[in-house]
Amino acid sequence: MTASRPWPVGVEGIVYGGDYNPEQWPREVRLEDVELMREAGVNLVSVAIFAWATLEPREGEYDFAWLDEVMDRLGEAGIKVALATATASPPPWLTRHHPEILPVTEDGTVLGQGGRQSYAVSSPLFREYALRMTRVMAERYGEHPALALWHVDNELGCHVPHDYSDHAAVAFRTWLERRYGTIEALNEAWGTAFWSQRYDTFHEILPPRAAPTYPNPSQQLDFARFSSDELLTHYRALRDVLREVTPQIPTTTNLMLSSATKWMDYFSWADDLDLVANDHYLIAADPRGQIELAMAADLARGVAGGDPWILMEHSTSAVNWQPRNRAKGPGEMLRNSLSHVARGADGIMFFQWRQSKAGAEKFHSAMVPHGGRDTDVWQNTVALGRTLEALAPVHGSRVLSRVAIVVDYPSWWGSELDSHPTQSLRYNEELLRWYTAFWDLGIGVDMVPVDADLSGYELILAPTLYTVRDEDAERLAAAARDGAQVVITFFSGIVDENDHVRLGGYPGAFRDLLEVRTEEFYALQEDEVRHLDDGSPADLWSEKTHLEGAEAVRTWADGPLRGWPAVTRAVTGEGAAWYVATRPSAEALESLVEEIAAAAGVEPSVPGLHRDVEAVRRFAEDGTTYLFVLNHSDRDQVVQVSGQELLSGTDAGGAFTVHAGAAAVIRES
Fold first, then answer.
1. Is residue 392 a contact partner of residue 14, using CB atoms and an 8 Å limit?
2. What per-residue confidence (pLDDT) applies to 3?
3. Mapping DSSP to helix (H, G, I), strand (E, B) and coil, where does residue 612 land?
4. If DSSP codes are grouped into helix, strand and coil, which group holds residue 292?
5. β-strands 529-531, 537-539: how paired?
6. Angle between helical axes of 217-245 and 166-180 (0-180°, round to 10)
7. Which domains does the chain have, with CATH numbers?
8. Residue 637 DSSP symbol
9. What would the mean pLDDT of 399-422 be, rounded to a whole number?
10. CA count, 13 A, side-chain hemisphere, 8
11. Residue 46: CB partners within 8 Å, gap ≥ 6?
């Protein structure tokens, strides 16, 4: 279980801190900041993320005096720095002199200066300026004793995941030529015989810009792959400069792993990150947002390959960018933070350290709020620092799960393309619905890529795995033969990696494994609900499925498919393969997951807890286990456990009460 990724240099225990933007404040406030950081127990801050225009106010003219002082004072106070490349937003002088670096939308709109990330990631000129700035930062601060980690750019692709500029067109052609080799191979992969789209040369190809009707779906899918790769290429270019100048300092960038971030295939980024860092924010409109938070944390751990990772941004209270922004309630900031720690984060950081008095994010909460020290938020900031100090022994331990959920970004992109059986299918919603069922049953999961090693898992779920390669489909089949319960859901295995339909009946790549054959989809209309033979409702999807060896677990009780299978099970080798050919209600889905988990021999982490009480274990190499119990409910919860409760330093005594809205971490005996 030894971690294979490096950690911020000189940081012991759990990382604690946030984005620090001293360029927004006068010197006297910066001096106060250092003292407040020490009071709160902060040990790492991210600095200079959006400081390019301050550091280089005019081309080639630098002002480092203020940053030199900040770095020195933080270092003297024992606070380490995740120093940014300062490239996240080009300064106004750059876009004024070179407007050709600006990004372009699908319909040809040029996105101008005045916000952030106003650059086309494929622009060679922008890359030249960004590389130069990165080298300047590395050469100036590479030996500074406060430097612990390089923070490359910021939330790459957050606002411009797809750029349709002429720069992107050139880079896209190069990417396609590497992928296919010949134009004939591309024509075959894209099915360009349809609608007279055949290309004679790569130079004829453009990004899938706004067109009279549906653009080529294979082209759209490849452009999504290219766009993710191009952002990663930009990260690699900056990272390589840092590695050249400061090989002793690890590098990362803050990912945005959540159910809302669609366009970056973060599993393909994992090997290029020295350590994985993630940003996550609750959705205020979601009354059980802690579940999506937990899924995002499990996904971050999955991208990290199980190694410890850092939560580089979340909020102390309300954010500013949602339609209605909700302040966090009592204990919520602590529970949110510890949920990430429970799921493998060994670092908890916030946006931002001090709440801005101007700019677009001035109403985004911070560790030091507008109201200063005489506020609940500040008291929570200090209390969390003490809590994370008490959890230092947890650092380096890992989460072990017997259930895996397969997450596949190309399937996310492909399943939501236009001209499909329904435009209401949302991959991320299906993912979260299944995750919620496991959550409510108290069963922990790993989130893994489609090419993961599946050995050791007793239950494997592949929701809406729309596009799949033969070798990945075989990996799932092998897991079932070896004894796992494998669950495939509707609109899976439909196409190959080029978005070509697998002929012979659906679900294509999984017909033999599932021992079924669907001849036609019967997509349900908006608000149309049908019922299964157990009386439970289902919506969105149905299909005419023939049993070819499988048994029907649920059948349709009404509608045009009455009597036809809706859920099937096929015994294969030592295990079984389940097919869920509809979207059951939340209650019916939980019942089905409970049935499948029982077949797999998988039980809750801690039996008997209220569904809004979160229980997760981390396992240390020496055999020590740490049980995190987070009570999101409005009632006290008694947990049958022995050991020491680390937050209070008390003996758990065999039956420990976790009060409503509170949290506990027990080092089990």
1. yes
2. 53
3. coil
4. helix
5. antiparallel
6. 100
7. 15-160+232-394 (3.20.20.80), 403-600 (3.40.50.880), 613-668 (2.60.40.1180)
8. E
9. 98
10. 33
11. 17, 18, 19, 20, 81, 82, 83, 84, 151, 312, 349
- Which residues have C-beta within 8 Å of that of residue 418, sequence separation ≥ 6? 214, 217
Cα–Cα distance measured from residue 575 to residue 480, given in angstroms and rounded to the nearest whole number: 5
Q: How confident is the model at residue 13 (pLDDT cuts 50, 70, 90)?
A: very high
Q: What's the pLDDT at 2?
A: 54
Q: Quick check: 377 pLDDT over 90?
A: yes
Active site residues: 155, 313
Residue type, 82: A
HSE-CB of 296 using CA atoms within 13 angstroms? 28
Give the end-to-end CA distance of the chain in Å, rounded to a whole number: 20
Task: Give pTM, 2 decimals.
Answer: 0.97
User: In the predicted model, is pLDDT for residue 1 greater than 90?
Assistant: no
- pLDDT per position as a tens digit, 303-347: 999 999 999 999 999 999 999 999 999 999 999 999 999 999 999
Residues 6+ apart with CB under 8 A from 166: 104
Cα dist from 118 to 105, 111, 585, 639, whole Å? 12, 7, 43, 51
Query: In this structure, how many other beta carbons lie within 10 angstroms of the beta carbon of residue 37?
Result: 26
Tokens (6 digits) for 126: 């922008």
Q: Is the Cβ–Cβ distance between 49 and 86 less than 8 Å?
A: yes
Query: Residue 292 corresponds to which amino acid?
Result: E
Token pair listed for 440: 């409510």
What is the residue whose two structure tokens read 């196409």? 495
Convert the pLDDT of each residue in 59-99 to its tens digit. 999 999 999 999 999 999 999 999 999 999 999 999 999 99
List for the chain the helix, strand, coil content (%; round to 5): 35, 20, 45
d(CA 190, CA 40): 56
Look at the alpha carbons of 6, 8, 13, 18 in this order and tell me if their dihedral is positive or negative: negative
Please give the torsion angle defined by the CA atoms of residues 123, 125, 130 and 132, in that order, rounded to the nearest 10 degrees.
Answer: 150
Among the listed residues 169, 133, 160, 135, the one whose alpha carbon sits nearest the alpha carbon of residue 53: 133
Rounded Cα distance, 39 and 262, in Å: 39
**349, 386 Cβ separation under 8 angstroms:** no
Tens digit of pLDDT for each residue in 523-578? 999 999 999 999 999 999 999 999 999 999 999 999 999 999 999 999 999 999 99
Amino acid of residue 48:
A
